[in-house]
Write a structure and sequence with these properties.
alpha+beta; binds FE2/S2 (inorganic) cluster; 28% strand; 9 helices; binds fe (ii) ion; 412 residues
């Protein structure tokens, strides 16, 4: 349970809120590369942390992310002409480059220096792994882009999808930090090995580790036969998680505003190029990045399947996750909940986020911002799973996860 004050602190992300300012210190996914498929293509409306923006790719292929409303008199630049190295407003023809410089004010008299005196709000971008990231914070605080493992892989080893969640970002994020729902929400009435493991012990023991990147979440289940099934995932500041899916996946939850969220799922397959079947979520998502199965059509839940095939009667894990968190409401009131032992992961992640935001309010630098290129490597952020001999320490089996630990907590 959280007090109403702490719930507000964590869930409000507008420009004037503590969490909003905290999130703006990090590189955040803003849109997919495929939304700007070629130089001079049509611009795209982007809403990020409550701010209306327009993204465009200029003639040289550079990506600009500008405030949506023209600095002249506010017409939306989304309708603008993307031509010859800049985006031109359709009202009076003002033209901007990707950095927000005014290149042209054709309605002003010849020789006017007006354009040199106006600077349009623009945010830096960084394009990698099929995602265009943006930094919305103060310019003098801009961190390096973190060299995560997925950011270093060749593009053919990475896949990405984007889908709309109709609720606050924290609900999506908390769904990732909760291993116990796997035995219920994602239960299938099959004898597949993973399903058998999850059913054998539906009440995992948890350990959590505060680390230099966020929180490492360890769920330990009795697997029978003298074995323990270990699942380890990683919450990484500010709002993403490394998890075990069909491949190792990184799930980002990015506030559009306080009641809508973009979920980005990035899969990494170091050992081989991505195959079409790895992109299994893509067929569930329409061209507007809304799921075909959504809140308005009750996720196309099939009550017959719910009796015979799986726990929910809903297709696809990520749709089940969406049903679980969207039906909590636009912003779940955490003062009304009843947390149990199985919520230890969520408690640890909230504790970390609250401490980080309060520290930031008190003037401290947010955690996990990269300033030093020599220390920009993160082999110890990972998601792993496997069976180990019961009674042995999981650390012996995944030694690269021994770094970065600040504090460990165990329950039961
Ligand atoms: S409002 Fe954009 S040029 Fe006038
Ligand atoms: Fe899930």
């Amino acid at each position: 349970m959280l007090s109403k004050e702490l719930n507000e602190l964590l869930t409000r992300t507008g420009p004037d809120t503590p969490m909003g300012q905290f999130l703006r210190r990090y590189w955040l996914p803003a849109l997919l590369s495929e939304e700007l498929p070629h130089p001079d293509c049509p611009p795209v409306q982007v809403r990020l942390l409550g701010e209306p923006l327009v993204a465009f790719r200029d003639s040289a292929g550079r990506v600009g992310l500008l405030a949506e409303h023209c600095s002249h008199r506010g017409t939306s630049l989304y309708y603008g002409r993307n031509e010859a190295g800049g985006l031109r407003c359709i009202y009076h023809g003002w033209k901007y480059d990707v950095t927000g410089r005014v290149l042209d004010t054709p309605a002003e008299p010849p020789g006017s220096t007006f354009k040199a005196r106006v600077r349009h709000p623009a945010y830096p971008t960084y394009e990698v792994a099929g995602i265009i990231f943006a930094y919305l914070g103060p310019r003098d605080k801009q961190p390096l882009f973190p060299a995560y493992r997925w950011a270093l892989l060749p593009p053919e080893h990475v896949y990405v999808t984007k889908s709309l969640l109709e609720c606050n970002y924290l609900q999506g994020l908390e769904g990732e930090c909760d291993s116990s729902h796997l035995s219920f929400l994602h239960r299938e009435f099959t004898d597949a090995p993973l399903q058998q493991l999850l059913q054998h012990d539906p009440a995992p023991r948890y350990e959590t580790e505060e680390t230099d990147f966020g929180v490492r979440l360890i769920a330990l289940r009795d697997a029978g036969g003298g074995q323990t099934y270990v699942r380890i995932s990683s919450f990484v500041y500010p709002t993403h998680c490394w998890v075990n899916a069909r491949a190792t996946e990184v799930h980002f939850y990015v506030p559009i505003d306080d009641t809508h969220t973009w979920r980005y799922d990035l899969g990494l397959i170091p050992e081989r190029p991505v195959r079409p079947e790895d992109r299994h979520k893509a067929g569930e998502i329409g061209p507007d990045y809304r799921r075909r199965r959504n809140l308005r059509n009750h996720y196309l839940q099939d009550r017959r399947k719910q009796q015979t095939e799986d726990f929910t009667g809903i297709e696809q894990f990520f749709v089940e996750d969406a049903c679980a968190v969207e039906t909590q409401g636009p912003i779940w009131d955490r003062s009304r909940e009843h947390l149990g032992v199985s919520d230890q992961g969520i408690i640890a992640v909230r504790r970390a986020l609250i401490a980080a935001v309060k520290g930031f309010q008190a003037g401290r630098e947010p955690p996990h911002l990269v300033r030093d290129a020599a220390r920009n490597h993160f082999e110890h952020i990972d998601a792993v799973q496997g069976c180990i001999p019961a009674g042995s320490d999981w650390r012996e089996h995944f030694p690269w996860l021994a770094q970065g630990v600040v504090r460990t907590r165990r329950r039961r």
